[in-house]
Amino acid sequence: MNILISNASDKPIYEQITSQLKQMIINGELEAGSQLSSMRMLAKELRISVITTKRAYEDLERDGFIYTVVGKGSYVAEKNMEFIREEQLKIVEDYLTKAVEGAKAGGIELDEMQEILQILYKEDR
Amino acid sequence: MKGKSNTFNISNTSNNENSKFAITINNLVKQYDDFKLNHINFQVPKGSIMGFVGENGAGKTTTMKAILDLITIDEGEITILGSDSRNLPKEKKALIGVVLDGSNLHDNLNVNNINLIMQRIYLNWEERIFYEYIKRFNLPETKILKEYSRGMKMKLSIVIALSHHAKLLILDEATSGLDPMVREEILDIFLEFMQDEEHTILFSSHIISDIEKIADYVTFIHKGNIVFSKNKDDLIYQHGLIHCKKDEVNQIDKAYIVGVRENRYGAEVLIKNKALFQRQYNNFKVDRTTIEEIMLFITRGKESF
After folding, report:
1. What is the DSSP letter of B6?
2. Domain span at A94
3. pLDDT digit string, tens, across residues A102-121
4. What is the DSSP code string of B205-230?
5. Which chain B positions have a beta carbon within 8 Å of A10's beta carbon?
6. Candidates B192, B233, B282; nearest CB to A52
7. For labeling, which of B14, B56, B77, B96 is most exposed (least CB within 10 Å)?
8. What is this model's ipTM?
């Protein structure tokens, strides 16, 4: 399992962690029921603050990707993957709606938007 | 005047053993002829690393000495591990590991002498852990401390602080004056120490990058006053830096502006409530900022009053 943190990224570190873990959960690299390393261990390995990994795990838990057993650790949730995909899709739609609004306000054509989308999709992991 | 105190509570204080805080400082005042710790309030949550920052002479060391009851305080109270710092029971003292700036060990001692001395001082001294760290840090066992470099002395002080099952580490400038490799080693040791949820670190440094890397909370002291004591991520991600033309600065709602720095060719504006700002203004590009920048903008702003 790889988690790559970039300090140059505009994305906060906790978001970099959540999005990479989400991706691994969605594509099955992390199986339901498998245990994640403790947030203190993750912080130590990545050389970042515990408060950052804590925030990442809390966000993942809030979104239903993982669950935590007090005193034992965090596990990948036995969740309906379709539901997760659905949720992500909703988020994507929300953002795209905003993007379309912005584009229309600025007179940006669909072609140009598609082009931007392609570039963004390929460059950001 | 007592009324003008700085309160930046992370949450409520409580005095019992099960408190969420390893250290609680309440309204601390220490008056010197030319300097005053001015009604200091902050708390160090258990299980976290608190970075304590501020320029030289801001009051970091004085605050730490007050916490350790090395100086008498004029007003206020400090609670450590649930007890008043002024009469901390012996078994609680044993749970604190301390590193103050500069080595306080005699120059003619070597590592083996120190092991023997510390066995007598600390109730829970653990020789095995001590020598493990000595090996890991490559500290020569037979050389006397006089022949140790500054980095070696600092590492030795940290090893001592870690070799008696401390739950709370209080370190004053433990990484200052050391090269990046040694600092990295020390930060790793801190993160290792933090694997236990009951462990807490308060460390001061003016190397802000070290604090930016591993601290959970940051407390900033300036001229004897606490400017902020906050969750590090909130601090970094809620602030942002804008580069714009000088005349564009007035377009920004003043409520967002923390500080402005102008030069001949433009202006830099530090803003807070970044997410809200970005929703309100899409014509400004907001860059990430650092604790160091936040500190500089805030203190510059203050100076102009």
Report:
1. -
2. 81-123
3. 898 888 999 999 999 998 88
4. -S-HHHHHHH-SEEEEEETTEEEEEE
5. 288
6. B233
7. B56
8. 0.77
In a domain, B4, yes or no: no
> What are the chain B neighbours of A43 within 8 Å (beta carbons)?
191, 194
Q: pLDDT digits over A2-30, tens only?
A: 899 888 888 899 999 999 998 898 888 89
Chain A hits for B186, CB-CB cut-off 8 Å, are none
> Of B41, B103, B105, which is closest to residue B78 (Cα–Cα)?
B41
Whole-number Å distance between alpha carbons of B233 and A55:
9
B75-126 pLDDT tens trace: 999 999 999 999 999 889 999 999 987 667 888 999 999 999 999 988 899 9
A30 occurs within a structural domain: yes
Q: Is A18 on the interface with B (CB under 8 A)?
A: no
- Token pair listed for B292: 């160091």
Domain count, chain B: 2
The answer to whether position A106 is within a domain reads yes
Q: Looking at the complex, does the CB of residue A36 fall below 8 Å from at least one CB of chain B?
A: no
- Name the maximum alpha-carbon separation found in chain B: 68
Q: Searching chain B, which residue's CA lies closest to the CA of residue A56?
A: B233
Q: Does A10 touch chain B (CB under 8 A)?
A: yes
Do B225 and B246 fall into the same domain?
no
Enclosing domain of residue B258 = 239-304
Please choose, from the candidates B41, B30, B34, B36, the residue with its C-alpha nearest in 3D space to the C-alpha of residue B70. Answer: B30
Q: Assess if residue B1 is contained within a domain.
A: no
Q: Which residues of A touch B232 (CB under 8 A)?
A: 49, 51
Chain-chain contact of A51 with B48 (C-beta, under 8 angstroms)? yes
Q: Where are the alpha helices (DSSP H) in B21-165?
A: 60-67, 90-93, 111-121, 127-136, 150-162
Bridge partners (DSSP) listed for residue B172: B204
Domain end call among B211, B233, B255:
B233
Spatial separation of the C-alpha atoms in residues B54 and B105, rounded to whole Å: 27
Instruction: Answer yes or no: are the C-beta atoms of A26 and A88 closer than 8 Å.
Output: yes
Does the pLDDT of residue B238 top 90, yes or no?
yes
Instruction: Please give the C-alpha separations between residue B52 and each of B141, B221, B248, in angstroms, as whole numbers.
Output: 33, 8, 35
**How far does the CA of residue B289 sit from the closest CA of chain A (Å)?**
10
* Cβ–Cβ under 8 Å, residues B112 and B145: no
